[in-house]
Amino acid sequence: MRGRLASQVMTLLAKDLRVEFRTREVLYTAGLFTLVLLTVFVFADLSHREVASLTGPGLLWIALAFIGVLVFGRTFQRERESRAIEALLMIPGLMDALFLSKLLVNLTLLLLLQLLLVPGLLLLFGLSPGDALGPLVLVLVVGTIGFCTLGTVLSAALATVHLREVLLPLVLYPLCIPLIVAGVKATSILIRPEEVSGDWTEWLGMMIAFDALFLVLGRWLFGEALDRADSSLDT
Amino acid sequence: MKPLSRTSAFDPLPLLALVVSGMVVVMLGMIFFYAPIERSMGVVQKIFYIHVPSAIAGYIGFLICAAASIIYLLRRTPAADVVARAGAECGVLFCTAVLLSGPLWARKAWGVWWTGEPRLLLTLVLMLIFVAYLLVRSLGGRSELTSRICAMLAILGVANIPMVRWSVERWRGSHPQVMTGEGGGISSEMELVLTISFATIGLLFALLFWLRVRIGLAEEDVERFHREASARAYRIEDRSRGNS
How far is CA B198 from CA A230, B18, B192, in A? Predict the structure, then answer.
């Protein structure tokens, strides 16, 4: 049973990633958006030497939230356009695999985009994590897992709703407040250990709790969102 | 088909509405003329009698919404959906009162319109979540899917409360200690007024909630009768076409 789930997840994940790496739709658009966003931050005078260490951590997570919405909005777009989701949902017992594979696709894309965002932001803002590079990566990965979980569930829920592009951030951001607070706090502590007091592991613990809660709730609600027994997936 | 909304000869709703209206007048009278003026904050402290009960009522609305949403997802009963919606609407209404009265009080008491006070932030975040909930409801149209999506949002929102609370409390390290009324010596007159305002706002909440549930059930009935009638019309049309 477990072997089957893993192979289903791998098949779905490979399918989605193959399509993405062939078209590079999300990576190109979201990647360019990352650069545009960083440029806007610089011209908004947020990377000044005096303020950079104050604004940097916050802007990092704001940028992540913006890019996330761009990525999550595409989660079910291809399935919606080709109505392939109905075929997928006809396969019994696929819900776990579908949830995990969509989550992993979003996670992969968002982590890849962070490879551009994080060094770019640190460079432009003249910040350096120093010895804290490992913990910083850990905080970012844990935060991204929680963010992607909520993003995947909500994009599944809103897949057929009118004005979904606008509604997704409206719904997603308030729910992510604890994650953003924790992420910004932990990042500030790691980047400016002399100025910001606090224990970053405490915030990391909260993020792990957030991830665990929403992974469990998310799996349940993902199934509910895609239960198409009585409604069709209209565009 | 049995209608969801019931009508009987005796309807207690107008009576309750009358009682609540009278209580609101009494409550306002007591707040303005009976309650003593607080020594350090002055007359603005009287906002407290509306502010605190409204906050509790708003939270209760959200909790009702989340509980009804869980029931809806498990059982798919339309009535649970109606209750969830009523809870969210009343919650947002009372939270609006909190978020309007809070800054007014803060401006006079602490000298600023807005502070990073944890309870204020928690209320704001919850309010944003449930405003989005109502937005999805109205944009999604009346359908089973919309109800299900909204139920999900309510559950995610309320499940988030402990974590929002934890993070906003630690967000600024030390947060300003707020006058709650419980800690510092609250006079017996103040206590009496507070009790009355709790009862009044509580009943006002119950009245609005009940009214909203009744309207929701009636809407649900209209929708179902409409569907049923059009289905019957189609059948009749089909049959007559078959005969000819």
Answer: 44, 18, 10
